[in-house]
Design brief:
eight-stranded parallel beta barrel, three-stranded antiparallel sheet, binds 3-methyl-2-oxobutanoic acid, alpha/beta, binds zinc ion
């Protein structure tokens, strides 16, 4: 029988630390979709952003706070009153809210980054944790670079943070330097040495620079941590954060060795993983644990034979337990609007009439071109329709001449702010010609950083899903496009990225992040 003390709180930071991965920035609508999916997944805490970092972050935290049903919504703040005040404002509409404030405690960070003495850091954390408690009873304090901090000083800071009102104490392995045995011992020591440690929940926040983030998080849990901070697909800065799906499935599958439980509905893992991957453009490597395309594939004859006799021979968890189902043939060109609407509902989409009509039109076009239409096709098509709802630049048509006898030419038609525009451009290959034609119709100086194509389903008539990443003046955006024609999908993806860039240009320049720590790790 499980006891309350076995329960591990899942703190998801995909929208905050995950979004700090270069190129992973998301717009408001995308963040709202991910937050909704995270709630369905059953995460306990959603770290929705860093409100003082930008107007966009503030708006996202506020809107997620407004819409959340069960999850605790958390906003990050440096240990400074202005940050905390801003986080509190953004979180105000939340039913359950948490302020997460952090300050570095390692000598290296205090000396070179903060230029603060130990005493100053200690005083500052007491002041800011006390201040944060004015806005909520749920305050988390993080000792940034905790795993490389002097143990005596760290214990002193933890004790004072709890005394000042912190209810969760997070000890991050900010630079992914720890090894499991050492990190486990660190949690054990702190909990034993800090006299009031029983008044707070201890939390692990591990980065993956040595590929040890999940192992370190589990070691922390085995030594008393009852919260883990993690991201979907392990998204995050540098090598990323601990992957939520790996921690959760390790605890579930090896409950015999690690008798702890989470509130995650594991059958939602695959859809959330796909959503995060599609929105950020970060493709999941095929051999990635739990959510990689090959995670449940058995290629060798011996394995296949064993599987047929008894799946447990080579399968330690079922694909169904993480929400992986065989592609189902859903509909064909004779399917009607009613059946299409029902399918959308089954796939979790609640769309307005206009969006349903647009998606249905595209579904009919697709069914004309493609023999079998699968759930994945519908998801790609609807996602593609939804992300375009408010676009200033709209794709209309594309005709490309390509092949070995050049020149490759693209004849493109776009609608820009309501006006139809058309151009023909040559290029070094059909993709180059297509992108050049977009540039001629909508002049811009953005650089193409990433161009990626993947197939939505199997077969030569599969839809291509294209991700394009553009960079302009330090801002990066990802665009997605799907179509049975790879070049049309490419044009749609580029136009989608361009629209996001136009929105970014219009938004206020972010509030400068000076002093304390410029960014969070
Ligand atoms: O890695 C880190 O130290 C962080 C803190 C802000 C918790 O992300
Ligand atoms: Zn971090």
């Amino acid at each position: 029988m499980s006891r309350e003390s076995d329960r591990v709180v899942i703190f998801d930071t995909t929208l905050r630390d995950g979004e700090q991965a270069p190129g992973a920035s998301m717009n408001l609508e995308e963040k709202l979709r991910i937050a909704e999916a995270l709630e369905e997944l059953g995460v306990d805490v959603i770290e929705a952003g860093f409100p003082i970092a930008s107007g966009g972050d503030f708006e996202a935290v506020q809107e997620i706070a407004r819409r959340a049903k069960e999850a605790i919504i958390c906003g990050l703040a440096r240990c400074g009153r202005a940050d905390i005040q801003r986080a509190a404002e953004a979180l105000a509409p939340a039913r359950r809210k948490r302020i997460h404030t952090f300050l570095a405690t390692s000598d290296l960070h205090m000396k070179y980054k903060l230029q603060m003495s130990r005493e100053e850091v200690h005083d500052r954390l007491i002041d800011t944790v006390t201040f944060a408690r004015q806005f909520t009873d749920d305050v988390e304090w993080s000792s940034e670079d905790g795993s490389r901090s002097d143990i005596d000083f760290l214990c002193r800071c933890v004790e004072s943070a709890i005394k000042a009102g912190a209810t969760t104490i997070n000890i991050p392995d900010t630079v992914g330097y720890a090894v499991p045995e050492q990190l486990g011992a660190l949690f054990k020591t702190i909990r034993e040495r800090v006299p009031n440690s029983d008044r707070a929940v201890f939390s692990a926040h591990c980065h993956n620079d040595l590929g040890l983030a999940v192992a370190n998080s589990l070691a922390a849990v085995q030594n008393g941590a009852r919260q883990v901070e993690c991201t979907i697909n392990g998204l995050g800065e540098r090598a990323g954060n601990a992957a939520l799906e790996e921690i959760v499935m390790a605890l579930r599958t090896r409950h015999d060795a690690m008798p702890y439980r989470t509130g995650i509905k594991t059958e939602h893992i695959t859809p959330v993983s796909k959503l995060v991957s599609a929105i950020t453009g970060f493709v999941v490597q095929p051999n990635k644990a739990i959510v990689g395309a090959n995670a449940f594939a058995h290629e060798s004859g011996i394995h296949q034979d064993g599987m047929l006799k008894n799946a447990q021979t080579y399968e330690i968890m079922t694909p169904e337990s993480v929400g992986l189902h065989k592609s189902t043939l859903v509909m064909g060109k004779h399917s009607g609007r009613h059946a299409f609407r029902a399918k959308l509902k089954e796939l979790g989409y609640e769309l307005g009439d206009n969006a349903v009509n647009d998606a249905f039109r595209r579904f009919k076009d697709l069914a004309d071109k493609k023999k079998d239409v699968y759930d994945e096709d519908i998801v790609a098509l609807v996602d593609d329709t939804v992300v375009r709802a408010n676009d200033r630049v709209k794709f209309i048509s594309l005709q490309v001449v390509c092949g070995s006898r050049g020149p490759q030419t693209a004849d493109l038609e776009l609608e820009v702010d309501g006006a139809l525009k058309r151009v023909t451009a040559n290029g070094d290959g059909p993709v180059d010609a297509t992108f050049r034609s977009i540039k001629e119709l909508v002049p811009h100086s953005a650089r193409l950083q990433l161009y990626q194509v993947s197939a939505v389903t199997e077969g030569t008539d599969a839809q291509a899903e294209v991700t394009v990443r553009l960079e302009e003046s330090g801002k990066t955006v990802n665009g997605q496009g799907a179509d049975t024609d790879t070049l049309v999908a490419s044009a749609r993806a580029y136009v989608n990225a361009l629209n996001k860039l136009l929105v970014k240009r219009e938004k206020n320049v972010p509030a400068a992040l000076k002093g304390l720590s410029a960014t969070a790790g």
